[in-house]
Amino acid sequence: MSELPRSEAARARRRARMWLTPGMGVKRWLLLFIVCTFVGAVGFLHFTWTGPLHFVATRWILWLNALTGSNFLPLYAAGMAVMALSLAGAFLSIVMLNRSLLRSTGTAPETAVDLIYSHRALSRGPRIVAVGGGTGLSNLLSGLKAHTGNITAVVTVADDGGSSGRLRESLDMIAPGDLTDCYAALSDSPVLARLLLHRFGRGEGLEGHTFGNLLLATLSEEQGGLQGAMRDVHEVLRVRGQVFPATTMPATLVARLSDGREVRGESGLAQQVGTARVQDVRLEPPDLPALPAVLDALRDAELIVLGPGSLFTSILPALLVPGIAQAVRDSGVPLVYVASLMTEPGETTGLSLEDHVTAITTHLGRAPDWVLLNSTPVPPRVQARYALEGAQVLNLQGASRDLRGRVRSAPLLQPGDIARHDPAALAQALLSLIARTRSAA
């Protein structure tokens, strides 16, 4: 029973300290309030002592002197005590007023300082643009949002399978699936994030769809395209950062294989490759427009991140939009490729890390400045399970001297039976690269 009060007191002290943290925008106004209060008190004293209310000031002094007793407390000390009590009362009135205003807006007063602190701190975070799609990109975003609110995710829209494919075919819209994952990753509301990813398991016409995909389809239909509804999406979902499609036009991924065949569509690529390898990919139509907001974010970025994600179906499709590719080539900030942990059966079977980097360089026209590679050994049991599917660990085996000079290693593997990047570790590794860039500048 005695633990709760101490815990509450500790939280109260922590919240009080947070109000005075640099950058909160509180101390300057608090100081102004104190100065104005004392100046006002002196002005009021001058008015009463020299004006028609002189008799009131005299009676107040005599009453206060009689109340405290001249031998018990000097008159000037009594005045100081009254000023302190008055100032405390003024502070209390402001606090209670703020509490009433916060409650009327649905914000708990106890969490207000956390929200303000988070917003202020995150608004000063580094400007990062992440390009790609799939689970890898959403994992990265969920880690970065704890450090910065200046995140822009540029998401591929070439997916033509599952819920996204059905909505594309029915409504002639861009694929919403990867957008939904990124919105959920960056949403400030855990409830909304959970709802966005909810997949209907029954219901004619609903089965297989996620709520987020249906929401984006609804807004796109209502606004005549997702571009017009983008501002509403960010506001409704309380997104920490921005999420944009690489283009607002429906696009089809076309892959050319080493045996001369062409495979159309992202969803069937891995199944149709067979023993061949993917030589290159393109989008149809080729001259797809990029959103101006995406180009602005790329121009203002401090770091551009590619991946993690599927090489030919997540990362490269977003870079195949001409405006985006040109903006990345023209950017003078570091370009980082987050290497996958494993190759992907069918899509990148047999490809080395050097092959991954070469594919990016060839399609983009710019080589990554850094390649972020996991240094944590993948457990043998996990390797064995992936090997049954034809996947292998990506490492520096056979890498050239140039590539080895670009590689930055960090422990990025998330514990468990699935080879997946740890969001917090990945975000920390990228922030370290930014810090290194700033110190070198």
Structure description:
Required for morphogenesis under gluconeogenic growth conditions. It is found in: Cytoplasm. Belongs to the gluconeogenesis factor family. The chain starts with a helix and ends with a helix. By secondary structure, it is of the alpha/beta class. The protein is 54% helix and 11% strand. The protein is elongated, with a radius of gyration of 30 Å. The longest helix has 30 residues. The chain has 2 domains: 99 residues, no CATH class; 316 residues, CofD-like domains (Rossmann fold, 3-Layer(aba) Sandwich).
Q: SSE layout and pairings?
A:
Blueprint: H1 3-19, H2 27-50, H3 54-68, H4 75-104, H5 109-123, E1 128-132, H6 134-144, E2 151-155, H7 162-171, H8 177-186, H9 190-196, H10 211-223, H11 226-236, E3 242-245, E4 252-257, E5 262-264, H12 269-273, E6 278-284, H13 292-300, E7 303-306, H14 311-319, H15 322-330, E8 335-338, H16 353-364, E9 370-374, H17 380-387, H18 401-406, E10 407-410, H19 423-440
Parallel strand pairs: 1-2, 1-7, 2-3, 7-8, 8-9, 9-10
Antiparallel strand pairs: 4-5, 4-6
Helix pairs in contact: 2-3, 6-8, 6-19, 7-10, 8-9, 10-11, 13-15
Protein name: Putative gluconeogenesis factor
InterPro entries: CofD, CofD-like_dom_sf, Gluconeogen_factor
Transmembrane segments: 74-97
